[in-house]
Amino acid sequence: MLTHCPSCKKPLQLTDEQIARLEQALAQLAPGKLLTIKCPMCRNAISLDKTEKTPPDQSNPVQQPPPPKLEWLTMGLFQNMDKVEDVPKALLLHQDNGQRKGIGESLESVGYQVVMVNSMADAIESLRFINFSCIVFQANLEGPLEQSSFHAYMRRMPMEQRRYIFYILIGDQFHTLYDLEALAHSTNLTVNSGDLQHLDVVLRKSIPAYEELFGPMLEERGTYGKH
Questions:
Q1: What's the distance, Cα to Cα, between the start and end of the chain in Å?
Q2: Could you tell me which of 222, 214, 217 has the C-alpha nearest to residue 14?
Q3: DSSP assignment, residue 66?
Q4: What is the spatial distance between Cα 174 and Cα 192, in angstroms, rounded to a whole number?
């Protein structure tokens, strides 16, 4: 099994689940086809044949064009450069109106696969079976936020699950990108309803900043099997 990236020479440090998926994809690979993964460190493409070896011309950038930029995928497995899996998912709990459609489109524009629900019960049930990377909640959906059963559920969520979720509150009372306000509400981001037309830009600014701050810590804990 390939252990180091041919481009940056750093250890790949794949999880057991990623290794299992990689081995399964290689086993199903048709003769003459290549499987391409993205190095989590340098983001360069690594192409493998069925024998788990890199083709001879991979180290020569003149003979091979660079892979397309896929910012929404953290560690994708590709066959013939088609997406297979590992798309991060976002749960959207918002009133079914024009704003919800726009929020969903903004989330999709930064790479999330969006799951929309209409009730707190549906949202909580979805959290039992799906690992979401992002949750967007309309703060007044149940009346005052301090009386919201869903927000209370998020605040009580065990940290081994909560720390991997980018939690966003949307409402007229909030100030967009106000970190102190987000901290006071036990969330990662607050967005004023009047700024939703710029939500894609807000996400592109706030999510990388969050990953830069907490990403190394979460990766280190994952390496040692901690949550």
A1: 26
A2: 222
A3: P
A4: 5
Residues 191 and 205: beta-carbon distance below 8 Å:
no
Tokens of 158: 């065990």
Listed ranges 10-24, 35-49, 136-150; the one with the highest mean pLDDT: 136-150
* Separation CA 137–CA 125 (nearest Å): 15
Edge to edge, what strands does the sheet with 45-48 contain?
Answer: 45-48, 35-38, 77-79, 82-83
- Helices 98-109 + 199-223 axis angle, to 10: 50
| Residue 69 CA, distance from chain mean position | 15
* Cα distances (Å, whole numbers) of residue 3 to 100, 133, 134, 138: 43, 27, 30, 44
List of E strands, the chain: 35-38, 45-48, 77-79, 82-83, 89-93, 113-117, 134-138, 166-171, 189-192
Residue 46's beta-bridge partner residues? 37
Q: What is the pLDDT of residues 201-223, one digit of tens each?
A: 999 888 887 777 555 554 554 44
Q: Three-state SS string across 120-142, please?
A: HHHHHHHHHHCCCCEEEEECCEC
Written as six digits, the tokens of 157 are: 């969520």
pTM of the model: 0.58
3-state SS record for 195-226 = HHHHHHHHHHHHHHHHHHHHHHHHHHHHHCCC
Tokens linked to 65: 């064009």
pLDDT tens track for 52-79? 655 444 444 444 566 665 554 444 444 4
